[in-house]
Amino acid sequence: MKLPLFPPVSGRFVRVWQRNLTVYKKSWKVSFIPPLLEPLLYIAAFGLGLSGLIGDVSYQGKAISYVDFVVPALLATTIMYNGFFETSYNSFVRMYYQKTFDAMMATPLTMPEIITGEIVWAATKSVLSAALMLPVLSAFGLLSYPASLLTLPLSILGGLAFGATGMFFTSIVRGIETFNLPVFLFITPMFLFSGTFFPLDQLPAWAQGVALFLPLTHLVLLARAATLGLWSAILPFSLLYLAVYTLVFFPLALTKMEKRLIK
Amino acid sequence: MDAVIAAKNLNKMFGNLTAVADVSFSVAAGECFGLLGPNGAGKTTTIRMLYGFSPLTSGTLELFGKSIAENLCDIKFRIGICQQDNSLDPDLTVLENLMVFSRYFDLPRQTAADRALKLLAFFGLEHRAAAKTSELSGGMQRRLVVARSLINQPDLLILDEPTTGLDPQSRQQVWTRLEELKRSGLTILLTTHYMDEAARLCDRLVIMDHGKVLVEGKPADLVRRHVGREVLEITRPDQSVRDFLAQRGHEFEDLGHRLLVYDQSCNGLFADLAEQFRDADCLLRMGTLEDVFLRLTGRALRE
Ligand SMILES: Nc1ncnc2c1ncn2[C@@H]1O[C@H](COP(=O)(O)OP(=O)(O)O)[C@@H](O)[C@H]1O
Ligand SMILES: [Mg+2]
């Protein structure tokens, strides 16, 4: 990567990614359960429970069922959670308690490579969870193909964006409990107010404006376009927003982590 | 021949605190070099500068004749580092710890597997290959960390307190292994605050305190220079013994309940004391590196 803001990172970061994959493979049976079962729970709750109360939702001038509306948001939030929680709590445990990064520094790896490996691994978990959810959702006929396959490349971008976000917070938190703050003030509000469970136009104008700055809003817009096969003019801007967001937070996470750990 | 390590005027500041002050030393190929000093002397900080973890505040540092500023990656392929804190991967088994580490050095899988098994056998861990690291005793964990630092077959092995916290059996085993490695020609840099360890393993050493090098030399030379060949310990001395020593012009250290007389030969004195003060409790023994260390760094507690 030779982007201006990035510190130099060689392809060696893959070694860090491989380490996490090795650990993941040891417990894959457990790791696979949430992305396979969670959609079933949501479909039961929204499809059987809420749908009856709510009926159809008007989305971009079309009436769509509430389940169709919620499913792509569910994909997007899963992508966010997998990326964010990997580089926040999990990376923090590796960094602080397990001294994994210290050990890696005794090898040819550099700190930016270690952190890049962690963020790319977080994105990989986002992709894995999306890939596991797709067949389950398809089995219920909730996805339109082939457009829905676009959620996979989208999960790479979303995973990098939220992986970088999580790592940014890891670089500044004092202790592991401190993550409650960004989760409570940033992640949970996004989960609720990014056009996930109700269309953005239900919000007052000022809140809609705020929501447009939330990365999850754009991930949801893009995911919904993919699963419904609905094109709209805002999508290129959403894509651009997520890309710029990632290009800001990724190098920021690298430099802040270097500051935190290299003394 | 180039030195394996050439450190000149290393300085490291943490804010206002000077952790390492003007430290210079060089280590020749095949040598075992010791960094000794009480806690907080700056040993770990010096080591962290050696492998590029901590940037130097000032000074120059060359490993294998190359400046670490420009060649860090190449250099790190050639060194093995056993850090002070055990940083074993608790998510992996003993064998996996070595295998995953070998990937950081781009070792082919088969080579890594061969080496890993040999290293486990070398450190008496082969029967625990499938264990979780948390199931190992402290001594076994430490041995595994040392084994891990050898997976890339380094030309320079850096050990930060390799035997702190080990039981005597584990320590002896680690020492025997390190001696074997030394015989095979490996260059070793070692920090320790066990003087018997340093005396046994190190060809040369420096004693540091408060970030500064106090003395440098071969263990035996340092003992001769700073303590003398023999030390006479007098337990529960009374005033008459003190007067006697002062009158005869002997240099001694007064610890209250104990006197230490340092001299090239205390033999005659020992006989005289035994004769004149029959109830004085005297012990004549060889001077050790521990005497040197305590004389130079003082007896005040650290931390
Ligand atoms: N990251 C750090 N920030 C501030 N001070 C430090 C840091 N690391 C070490 N020190 C200080 O530098 C001094 C030397 O520490 P260290 O090199 O760990 O000593 P040793 O390994 O000889 O016990 C100590 O006073 C220690 O508190
Ligand atoms: Mg130390």
**Gyration radius from CA atoms of chain A, angstroms:** 19 Å
Can you list the strand order of the major beta sheet of chain B? 6-7-8-3-9-10
CATH class placement of the domain at 228-287 in chain B: Alpha Beta
Unreliable spans of chain B? none
CATH topology of the domain at 228-287 in chain B: Alpha-Beta Plaits
Overall outline of chain B: globular
Number of strands of chain A: 2
Whole-angstrom Rg of chain B = 22 Å
Helix content bin of chain A: over 70%
Please outline the major beta sheet of chain B. Answer: 6 strands, mixed
What is the total domain count of chain A? 1
Largest interface: A-B, 21 and 28 residues
Short précis:
The model of chain A has no long low-confidence stretch (mean pLDDT 92). Chain A is 73% helix and 3% strand.
Please give a structural write-up:
With 263 residues, chain A is mainly alpha-helical. Chain A has one domain (13-261). Helices cover 73% and strands 3% of the residues of chain A. Chain A has a two-stranded antiparallel ribbon with strand order 1-2. In chain A, 44% of the residues are buried. Chain B has 303 residues and is α/β, with parallel strands linked by helices. Chain B has a domain at 228-287: Alpha-Beta Plaits. In chain B, α3 (94-104) crosses α4 (109-122) and α8 (219-226) packs across α11 (289-297). The two termini of chain B are 41 Å apart. Classes of the chains: A mainly alpha (263), B alpha/beta (303). The A-B interface holds A 10, 15, 18-19, 22-23, 26, 98-100, 102-110, 262-263 and B 14, 51, 53-55, 72-73, 76-77, 80-81, 83, 85-92, 96, 100-101, 103-105, 149, 152. Magnesium ion binds next to α1 of chain B.
